[in-house]
Amino acid sequence: MNRAKRTALVAAGSVAMVIGGIGVALPILPTTPFVIVAALCFSTSSPRMYGWITGNRYFGEYIENYREGKGVSRRTKAYALIFLWSMLVISGIIMANGIALLVLPVVGAAVSAHILLLKSRAVSCEEQPQ
Questions:
Q1: Strand partners of residue 120
Q2: How sure is the predictor about 51, in pLDDT bands with cuts at 50, 70 and 90?
Q3: How many CB atoms neighbour CB 59 within 10 A?
Q4: Closest CA to 42 of 1, 84, 71, 14
Q5: Spatial CB neighbours of 46, under 8 Å, sequence gap ≥ 6
Q6: DSSP strands (E only) in 69-109
Q7: pLDDT digits (tens, 9 = 90+) for 84-112
Q8: pTM (two decimals)
Q9: Residue 125: pLDDT above 80?
Q10: What is the Cα–Cα distance from 106 to 8, expressed in whole angstroms?
Q11: β-pairing, 72-73 with 120-121?
């Protein structure tokens, strides 16, 4: 992998990780999708960062549940869909050109389908808001 691609993936993974970390403390922001995206970015760009995120006591469980097909909580799915569509609408308003307005709903529909098709699991006691 070339250096520019590796740097871009590490940067994207780092941004996703920061947003996922904020989501731990901010209930309106989903954590799981961002942590999974970060793990995907790191898995191909930085073995050291991938090892850190999969071994992390806070985020490792999210990746393990996804990788092993244990599922994602319904709450996480709902937050992910709300955030996804909110960002797509904001992007559409900012970009406001014909191609973007055609592509964004297609991307949103595909990502929504993926999220909805993920196996759902019950929320454990540790995940419930206090």
A1: 72
A2: very high
A3: 23
A4: 14
A5: 6, 9, 10, 13
A6: 72-73
A7: 888 888 888 887 788 878 888 888 898 88
A8: 0.58
A9: no
A10: 24
A11: parallel
